[in-house]
Protein 1
Amino acid sequence: MSTYIVALDREVLPEGLVRGRMDTAELVIWRGASGSVHVWEDRCPHRSSRLSAGRNMGAYLEDPYHGWRFAEDGTVIHVPAEGGKGHPEISAHVLASAVTGGFVWASAGVLETGDFAGPPLRPLHFGVSANRVAAELDPTKTRITPWGAAACMVYGIDPDAMAAHRMLTALRRRLEAAG
Ligand code: FES
């Protein structure tokens, strides 16, 4: 299983919920009261609602539909329909994750963040496959996260953010125009 960047650390604000993607998995990314960033599948284990539509209450994430509450480790700590009973045997789908170099990394398997640090660029969505974009970019300065088979998100590092952003947007135009 591969490890991918799924967000910038600075985008994951306290009390916020960030939607992300990695391959075909939809993600919810959030920072708990502990300061740790969590990456979960964006799917409630109760009836599969989007957890990203819920609320980040710091100590827990609350589902928008039936109000189940999930602790930072993903376990269910409160079910309103059962008088607030917890269910530690039930958990959100938690992915292995870490924050390094200003990026949030996640993996559905073993987490391997590697050595990638520098001033992070604003991520860019490309409407072409990860493989096509990877063939054009310097792997020491970019990491590419597939978004399904036909799109991807490009994360980069570069001290010259303006020039790097211009290069990436020009590349995106060219690749998307080529279809
Ligand atoms: S769908 Fe999440 S609490 Fe019911």
Protein 2
Amino acid sequence: MPDPILFVVDRDPEILKCLAAALERRFGADYSVLTDGSPISALRRLEQACERGEDVALVIADQRTPEMTGLDWLARTRALYPKASRCVLVGYGDAVSFAEVRRGLALGQVDTFLLRSCDNPEERLYPVVSEILGRWSRATRPRVPILLIVDERWSQRSYELRDLLERASIAYGFYDRDSDEGRRLLREVGHAGRLPAVIFAGQVLTDPTDSDIARVLGARLEPEAELYDLIVIGAGPAGLATAVHGASDGLRTLVVERQTVGGQAGTSSMIRNYLGFPRGVAGAELASYAQEQAVSLGAEFIVTRGVAGLEDEGAEKVVTLAGDRQIRARAVVIACGVSYNRLEVEGVGDFVGKGVFYGAATAEAPAFAGQPVFVVGAGNSAGQAAVHLARYASEVTIVVRGEALTMSDYLVRQIKRSDNIRIRFKTEVARAEGRARLETLDIKDTVSGGTERVPAAAAGDVRARSPRGVTAAVADGAIAIRSVREYLGEE
Ligand SMILES: Cc1cc2nc3c(=O)[nH]c(=O)nc-3n(C[C@H](O)[C@H](O)[C@H](O)COP(=O)(O)OP(=O)(O)OC[C@H]3O[C@@H](n4cnc5c(N)ncnc54)[C@H](O)[C@@H]3O)c2cc1C
């Protein structure tokens, strides 16, 4: 396969030459850098590249090219390369272009902007392009798997494993036991026992628990000490923030998480409203940054092991971990989030992991390429799931009981712009059916009472409204440390 293309269009041959040279220096080993002074001829060349089956990762355009604006050109490249990232160039002092670009950014016509200069590329050009290419590569290129899972395609346990690994940002390969590759892998490792089989570095784990997998990957499952200043229960955004602030205040801090870091936020395909990430950040990515930050400040983590009990014993709290190990702390912060109701509709429970997914279904999205998908809910999680799934599914239908969407405006705009997302207001899922996996849904019109049976590959229950959001959870975590200090009498 030829290298993916980075295509730059600019009216000024000098700027074009120096931008291309800068991009070539940093990204030339993995990408092919192409340039053109004319958007019309650039479009023709992109059409030819598309016919040859070549991939384009990033298109960059000067907003003031002579034949059409950069934003218009970028919009036209979308039909050829819908997954390519889009970036517009604006000159210093060009207030008119800045105003146009600001509108383009707000409407989601373009992913980001760069200043039309190649001075100091280390400051903005390289970091922005690296981030964009990293995201493009994660979404479109096969990742080298660390773990291989072989199981029945629609087994609930393998769905749980895929979900866990996705949230923990661990690359994995999944193979249907009946596929040639699945059979070959099982033969190679000599496994004829129960499934799922999880293969890591030639070693097979038979139907492993989450902790078995964490252990084999080198995660900590036992605390280092018997007594901590602070134990944080739960590693969602609130728990992570508590750990960062606790550890930075010098408290010996342990975080205990029954699954993996990130909590609900870890299931989010793209968080756009958290401070400091202008191009958005995947929930799992944000969580792993926060964990790294907490660890670098001295916090300790135990994952895949829940807290089963908590008792007062004089000035200390006794925390019982799953498996009955007890540890002590001078203070405990409980940041265990919420758990949500499931969709109580006939048939739905039978297909969890077999076409019915809760949350944003990030791990499952690629499996629904070319198939119709239904998302239930009107809030932010539903919007994020729909936008994410629309990149793979033939059509995404959002089923909304009420008459309006309750999600953030940026998601409403993204949905309106999408060609393959439709919304059905005043409807609800009345029944799910299938054989080995979900095949049809009955969608009921809540006004007329009429029911329509529709084919469906996946359906995700996503609630109408997130109770607080990441920012509030992080703020709670930070504030909790103040209360901890007051409680410990150290203020
Ligand atoms: C799909 C989706 C998309 C979202 N998108 C956004 C968004 O774009 N922007 C935004 O602001 N918000 C978003 N949210 C909401 C946001 O994720 C939540 O508000 C936030 O995660 C709440 O943080 P928390 O730490 O309080 O709880 P949680 O995230 O629920 O974390 C609690 C953690 O505690 C652990 N835990 C529970 N019990 C125990 C126990 N006994 N022992 C050990 N650990 C335990 C859980 O496993 C979990 O990891 C989204 C939510 C979802 C589901």
